[in-house]
């Protein structure tokens, strides 16, 4: 299985347009040791020809242009066959609306996420201009779903949803009770290569299901949004805690570094908020993460998983 990190930052990106925090200001002026990052998304493929996005970020256009494997092979063509969504959050699905140039695509998501996108949303009609334009593939946590190529053949990849504690996206929160299908983790498998990728960009609670899913994977991408639970409040940027926003912090006794110490496979933090000190390459927090065997994902990072040889390029 081929994997490319298209974007590694949380919603807003790094730097974020309306943020002058230490990190955002520092990366703009070149005074911190950190690289700018676009908003979180992965591209995955079994054969290097047909690709699927895991989340579609608002930065999708420049992310595709930066990735040669996602460029058209003919005058009107795209190697992209579909998008798998982990939630209906704007930073995870706005990119879909930027792929509106009459390209048939499959959208794999839970029913909750699909309804949030497609119902009472006039903009979604731009993705439903002709029969088969945007087709929904339901993700149900009990089932492994085969991802089809553009002509309907099996792509070689399957995806399984892992239900997570979550909440509806902010714009749908009024009047909609939280469900375990608002926000999911993904296990993407390329059975022929014997490769499994775990993709959990937003995870509020590391329970038994999450542990079991992560244990199955050859590579793990996990929620690196915040270093500490009160990161935004401490920096004077907001009142809500990391847990309250649906993210286990990286540091601290309840954090992912302590809680996931038993993992030994390749593992990366992704969906990193611009306030997180792990973005600074010379920070104590970055050293701590690396001492625990994790890496901080960066845009353009590529992996090959499974029988074609596990290597990072
Ligand atoms: Zn997000
Ligand atoms: Zn910032």
Structure write-up:
By secondary structure, this protein is an alpha/beta fold. Helices cover 17% and strands 24% of the residues. Strands 6-5-4-3-2-1-14-15 form an 8-stranded mixed beta sheet. It is globular and about 50 Å long. The two termini are 13 Å apart. One zinc ion (ZN) binds next to α3.
Summarize the structure.
The chain has 313 residues and is α/β, with parallel strands linked by helices. It is 17% helix and 24% strand.
Order of helices and strands: EHEEHEHEHEEEEEHEHHEHEEE
The main sheet comes to:
8 strands, mixed
Mean pLDDT across all amino acids = 95
How far the N terminus sits from the C terminus, by CA atoms, comes to: 13 Å
Ions, cofactors, ligands: which are bound?
Answer: zinc ion
Helix run count: 8
User: How many E strands?
Assistant: 15
Radius of gyration: 18 Å
Task: Tell me the structural class.
Answer: alpha/beta
Shape: globular
Helix-residue proportion: 10-25%
What is the topology, as strand order, of the major beta sheet? 6-5-4-3-2-1-14-15
Strand composition percent: 15-25%
Return residue spans where pLDDT drops below 50 for at least 5 consecutive residues: 309-313
Compile the SSE list and pairings.
Layout: E1 2-7, H1 22-29, E2 41-45, E3 51-54, H2 60-65, E4 80-84, H3 90-97, E5 105-109, H4 111-118, E6 134-138, E7 144-148, E8 154-163, E9 184-190, E10 195-200, H5 208-215, E11 219-223, H6 231-234, H7 256-259, E12 266-270, H8 284-291, E13 295-296, E14 302-304, E15 311-312
Parallel strand pairs: 3-4, 4-5, 5-6, 10-11, 11-12, 12-13
Antiparallel strand pairs: 1-2, 1-14, 2-3, 7-8, 8-9, 9-10, 14-15
This protein binds zinc ion (2 copies).
């Amino acid at each position: 299985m081929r994997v490319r990190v298209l974007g590694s930052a949380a919603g807003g990106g790094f730097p974020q347009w309306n943020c002058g925090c230490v990190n955002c200001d520092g990366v703009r002026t070149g005074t911190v040791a950190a690289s700018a990052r676009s908003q979180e998304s992965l591209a995955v493929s079994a054969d290097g020809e047909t690709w699927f996005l895991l989340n579609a970020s608002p930065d999708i256009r420049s992310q595709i242009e930066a990735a040669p494997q996602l460029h058209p092979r003919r005058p009107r063509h795209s190697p992209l066959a579909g998008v798998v969504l982990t939630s209906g959050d704007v930073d995870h699905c706005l990119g879909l609306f930027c792929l509106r140039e009459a390209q048939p695509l499959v959208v794999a998501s839970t029913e909750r996420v699909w309804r949030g996108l497609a119902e009472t949303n006039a903009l979604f009609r731009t993705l439903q201009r002709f029969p088969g334009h945007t087709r929904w593939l339901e993700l149900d946590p009990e089932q492994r779903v085969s991802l089809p190529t553009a002509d309907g053949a099996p792509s070689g990849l399957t995806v399984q949803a892992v239900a997570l504690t979550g909440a509806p996206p902010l714009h749908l929160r009024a009047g909609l009770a939280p469900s375990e299908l608002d926000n999911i983790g993904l296990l993407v498998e390329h059975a022929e290569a014997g490769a499994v990728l775990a993709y959990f960009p937003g995870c509020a609670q590391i329970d038994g299901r999450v542990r079991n899913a992560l244990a199955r994977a050859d590579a793990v991408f996990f929620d690196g949004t915040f270093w500490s639970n009160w990161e935004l409040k401490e920096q004077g940027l907001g009142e809500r805690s990391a847990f309250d926003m649906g993210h286990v912090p990286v540091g601290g006794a309840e954090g992912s570094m302590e809680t996931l110490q038993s993992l030994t496979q390749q593992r990366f933090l992704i969906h990193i908020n611009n306030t997180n000190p792990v973005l600074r390459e010379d920070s104590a927090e970055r050293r701590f993460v690396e001492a625990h065997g994790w890496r901080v994902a960066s845009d353009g990072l590529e992996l090959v998983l499974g029988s074609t040889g596990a290597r990072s390029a």
